[in-house]
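**User:**
My hope is that you can spare some time for a protein that puzzles me. This is the protein in question:
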Amino acid sequence: MHKIEPRLADLIDVAALSADIDGITAGKGPAEFRPALIARLRQVRTAAVARAGELLNADGSGLSCAQRLAYLQDVLVRQLAEVAIGRVFRVDNPSKAERVAVVAVGGYGRGTMAPGSDVDLLFVLPYKRTPWTETVVEFVLYGLWDLGLKVGHATRTVDECIRLSQSDMTIRTAILEARFVWGDSELFQSLTSRFDREVVQGTASEFVAAKLAERDERHKRQGRSRYLVEPNVKEGKGGLRDLNTLFWIAQYVYRVRSREDLAELGVFSRAELNLFRKAEDFLWAVRCHLHFATGRAEERLSFDFQREIAIRLGYTSHPGLRDVERFMKHYFLVAKDVGDLTLIFCNALEEEQVKQAPVLNRFLNSIGRRKRRKLPESGDFVIEHERLNIADKDVFARDPVNLIRLFHLADRNGLEFHPDAMRLARRSLKLVDAKLRENPEANRLFIEILTSRRAPEAVLRHMNEAGVLGRFIPDFGKVVAMMQFNMYHHYTVDEHLLRCIGALSEIEDGIHIENLPIATRLMAELQNRKLIYLALFLHDIAKGRPEDHSIAGARIARRLGPRFGFTAAETETLAWLVENHLVMSMVAQSRDLSDPKTIADFAALVQSPERLKMLLVLTVCDIKAVGPGVWNGWKAQLLRTLFYETEPMLAGGHSRLSHGDRLMAAKAELADALVNWPEAERARYMERHYAPYWLRVDLPAKVAHAELVRAADREKRRFATAVEVHARFDVTVLTVLAPDHPRVLSVIAGACTVAGANIVDAQVFTTTDGLALDTIAISREFQGDDDELRRARRITDMIERVLTGLETIPERGVRKLANGKPNAKPFNVPTEVHIDNASSERFTVLEVAGLDRPGLLYDLTRALSDLSLNIASAHIATFGERVVDVFYLTSLSNQKVTAPSTQAAIRRRVHQAFDGPPKETAPKDAAAREATGKEPAAKSKDQRAAAE
């Protein structure tokens, strides 16, 4: 008889089910009653799973839901086993061989299951197999398969279980958490007792090493950071599998059977045990809700479902933070708690292993390198096991500054942290109060940590994991574990800030001198390196507030500057850098850098060469720390161009290279690269490009363009294309040479759309002899270069056929693909349209922003062409799900677009491209469409959002 917990009893009426099955099977053979039996069990399971979902919504307990679902599975297995043994294959006087124990293993063995979990079963047999046991096992398995369950199973004797578990760590782990479900209990008891005696005893270190290595490999596959914005709830760092690993090791080393035993043994305190329970319950709630929401065994908490899970869990929006962002912040805080518990547990485990070491080894360790020795700089700390540890348990209470000094000494001496020190630091966070925050010594030590020439990112991360960083700087504490609900940022805000410091430290060390020569040189020239470190640390510290985070961040910088010992002038520069940290990226990526007014306006904002240097370095680090693949050579070239165009204006006309000198240098550089060309041919080519081309395109691209144009000239072709794959940046670059025409860019965009290619960037140039030279970057689809090249050539072939009139763009194909970008569905990005006649002397600058989708650039460029507008240059940039496109326009008479009616038509057509046509029926004729309806007001423009 199995005891039923009260909270499980209302899930299913087992007595009623048994009675129903008796009625179904009575007096009938298996072939006759099987359909009705499976139908009844399926009906019960469907109702019980639905009921489990209702109870999850009612009580919010994820662990209870997981246990209910495991209990439901127990009932199904037992009912099938009872029918098999008691009715179909009944043996009144069974022999010793006609016995079987049905055992749950894996997650099912732990007594927890998600709605989509697999069912892992082990059928334990006595010393030999018989036809009877095989038929019983088959009956149970086929019954479960008929119910639509995914079943993992093994049938083994006790001897086989022991032998295999000795050589296979996966099987050993499965038997470690095996749970008896039905059958012969003596067989199960024999298995567990022999397992303890013959497998576990004396092999703890082997098991621990294997499980920790397995964990590290899993983290490597899933992403080493626990702050990835689309985490894997089960396998990711800080997820359920990490908690499982802790308990596996605890079961193996300490032979515990429940989590409560860990507190009894002193491995966890009661508070830490409570933290374990809360983390486990929360993660199970997320996982179960995710399975219910998706209708499948989905473990990745993707953008598509984050908001739905947030609503299911009851999160609401607060000023500055949406419901989904509050939920994900809680998720990452729980993941951090799991990391803390892992460190605490590993510390206890290490002490246990030292206790169990042979006496001679302990003696040798006590006199050898692991002996505690004093740290010369402070009597409050010692070096133990080559790690920094506390001298006694009153270290922090005696002098709270030691909470900062701990990290300073670790950095200064290149020491890892002893778990005892980190554990006490976490328990002493209440000592980090206003008095400590204003302590000059504590603030001096912090700035030295932040600006260390060793490994500031690593020490700051330890400081953050311990909770000290967020307590010492409360504004930083507000962004700990805060995610931004968009596809652009790969990490939480605090993780992004720490990675920025790491990027800056690497630049200062010269690690990236080949890829980032300008930033590396400028970093060495800065008059105040501490200022750039603090500015980078603070630049996003005001995220999650109702107001612009750049402006709010500048206020925080003005408050913190004096606290950290900066002068009034330094503090003002610090605040300026934080307030304007997005400007350089925005101008470089979305403005025509050959336009003198663009440079003049930017120079007027920056005002000094030193600010320009710091802003460039800050911008590079900010972009590099967003996530893998965000930084690329194109962005580097644009920032370089903006820097070199602005520097002479701020230096009073004196600079390493003037505008004219840089044009000549760029031409000379290409000339040197084309040394094999005849001199006359090379000279003619140098006159085929305007100044913007020379300043915005890097040398490898210029060389490739030159060869493309030369080959087209020799073959007397006006149309030519080229393809280059960039695995490093996860993009493929298409280059198109064609006679210049207002619709060239639109044709290219349309062909890419039909081919299913997503445009992520574009450079548009016109040669002096009337050719368009457009370079388009599309998202890479295939891992292999050969496959990707074939795909890219299909796209360029279509572009050539359309441009030469051999083919037209199929509108149906464009419309079908433009219905929506799957990954963008969860996001709501308002459409913004801004028409600016003041930012350029010659052109009207049209800036549009909104939700990205396939075919968007085609619709935008086609709309502008339909309005008889000429696109002089286009600047295409995507930031995750958000696209920001800037077009420099003129009318066909080469004048700025000033007519109110034309501007209204532009706004209307742009809004339609982003948001679709108005709800009311619109006239089919394009001209009539422009003449009808009221003009929607342009939405407010936040330029800073363009660079986020």
Observations:
- The mean pLDDT is 86.
- The longest strand covers residues 869-879.
